[in-house]
Amino acid sequence: MRNPWSWVPSLYFAEGIPYVTVMTISLVLYKQLGMSNADITFYTAWLNLPWVIKPLWSPFVDIIKTKRWWITSMQLLLGAALGGVAFTIPTTFWMQGTLCFFWLMAFASATHDIAADGFYMLGLSQHEQTWFVGIRSLFYRFAMIFGQGVLVMIAGNLQVIFRNSIAYSWSLLFYGCTGLFIALWLWHSYSLPRPEEDRQRDGVTAKDILHELWRSIKTFFKKEQVLVGILFMLLYRMPEGLLVKVTTLFLIDAPHNGGLGLSPQEYGFVQGTVGVLGLVLGGILGGIVAGKDGLRRWLWPMVCAITLPDIVYVYLAYALPSNFIVINACVFVEQFGYGFGFTAYMLYLIYYSRGEFKTSHYALCTAFMALSMMIPGLFAGALQEAVGYRTFFIIVMGLCSVTFIMSALLRIDPEFGKKKDNE
Known about the structure:
The protein has 423 residues and is an all-alpha fold.
């Protein structure tokens, strides 16, 4: 059996890189290539779709080939998609070409997530699964820092070296990422174990899978507070769904357009390191306090945490500070609040998924989670262009009331999430 240290960290690092590339790096790339905010948010929001529909094809990953095969195949496909982005950036059809390969990357990334999470449970003993759960999360966060921080800063430095040749610099960066994923594919082809349980399931037909999927969907929509639950999943993060793409564009947009005008290097540090650090620390604190006192006890502090810090962008839009420390502090506060408040959302998904089919129901909950970010993103850029950054951020603060209303409608067992005496 392979030592888990030889493959768990690298597997979850490989899981995080394409996700952050599709969701964040694409925004910076398109902004620098001159695409409008409305087009950027509209087209990149659709890249959430593979994660929205992931529960519909995840059962088929279990019966077609092994999870090890899916992991290595998707990593090779991700390398090809990154190479396709690199190749098409300098061309005259860069928008159509890069979007096509980003779509391929999103699909391969979502499929890789399914296989990697399943393989984690097959390739490790129960004790090892518990021990490495923090390690896998840590290396996924490292991937976020590497993607949003290091890679964006490298792109900025390449633009300095090649005299502001934006397309050429980004193309070189993506070719480098292609090489990284080919290396990860080669490494995992060698290092991933071959557990006995990881095998193609014989005797299970597509009809059986569809029947079981239909049963899980029917029971999902028969749960208590189903309407409130689904609306909560869709609307709790509405303010953040509007913010997440526009804040990236705001930070790098020119001052005469109402933005802060950060260079790629500055953006990479602010959002990719300071912001991710705030997000991680907020999430850790949220998990600790919810585990001690339960979700219901901490629901309202978490609701306030995920909404009220959004006001820092109202301040940034009006003050347009040039002090780099002030900008970093504001982003840290907002991301810390988001990390703390997001804990309530994730715990509610677990709470709603209890009972029969809890794995399938949780997968459906994550589909609504992806949809909650996709829908606001479709029109966020168009709204910002219509009213400007300042009014846009004020509208976002007003929509925080939706988060409060949906949270007030929830009925949650006060014991849920508390640590029991025998645990």
